[in-house]
């Protein structure tokens, strides 16, 4: 019931927003040029206590989807894009009279999108925003639905990363409305991925009912889809599509686990973390960076539950794998392990690990990690002082 209710609610919201899609390029304000490192919206919903936060950086572990579209849908839009680029390259050596007006507009649209993506790569976000607004107007002018979806997706992801959540919500829904009206099924990976980002936005905005329904929609849709895949002949489904669907389920479980942990539902968070970690290890290997992330996050939640020994076992394993693979962020895992040892009351060992992690972080030039590790050392000193005071009183 909750799943069907969420689907109806989401489609209803998209329908209400449909009338403003054509005005979206006017209503979305220009993006800031700030180059400061910002948290993703789902990160900012994390626990407030420093003890509750895993300092391991979040990294995308679902195969990159630049415009928030899966491979099947991206094939359609990329095919259009590559064909247009090929035609434009050919036109450089041909007569401009041979180009139709439609082809010229398509070439201009592709050029705008390429400029926008390049601007995003070099951090010129204000310029990227201008190019994308021009591109989406041209896409509407030429009634190119694939280009509209692709451009709205780029705009939505840009707003999402910059924390402009209201704009990101509107743009994701705009892209989804065109996909659904074009016949894309609701359980398409592209639709589910956008729904997951909407759920993360709602979580950050403390719209808990919408967030919970959104996460449930994503996980249940993907689980049902994976069950259907089991009944299909092997030749009817590529290994890549099967893997992408499982990894998207892992990503959904990971996102929901962080939301649950932020709301102190630790038992449910642990269950989702374990399932996500199992999927990641099966599909990408135990040493994959995201497998290490999930081990660390699971250890953090177990530590919060007072299960320090189990937490220590997970983070130790993550460190072993990181050291064996030469992972550049070993200092972050060492810092997490130091925190768990501190909570166990093993202050001397915690201090050694904090110092070791600090040296590695400084050598790596990781200012953010250095600051977090220094905060950990301060908390360790305070705990030592409190223990000494208690012992003296006794």
Descriptive terms for the model:
394 residues, mainly alpha, 17 helices, 75% helix, disordered N terminus, globular
List unreliable stretches of 5+ residues.
1-8, 10-95
SSE arrangement, N to C: HHHHHHHHHHHHHHHHH
Question: How much beta, percentage-wise?
Answer: under 5%
Q: What is the arithmetic mean of pLDDT? A: 79
- Global geometry: globular
Q: Gyration radius, to the nearest Å?
A: 24 Å
Subcellular location: Mitochondrion
Keywords: Mitochondrion, Repeat, TPR repeat, Transit peptide
Protein name: Tetratricopeptide repeat protein 19
Main location: mitochondrion
Can you give a write-up of this model?
By secondary structure, the protein is an all-alpha fold. The chain has a domain at 1-42 and 64-184. 75% of the residues lie in helices and 0% in strands. It has 17 helices and no strands. Helix 1 (2-18) crosses helix 10 (208-230), helix 6 (125-141) runs antiparallel to helix 7 and helix 12 (266-284) runs antiparallel to helix 13 (289-304). Residues 1-8 and 10-95 have low confidence and may be disordered.
In short:
With 394 residues, the protein is mainly α.
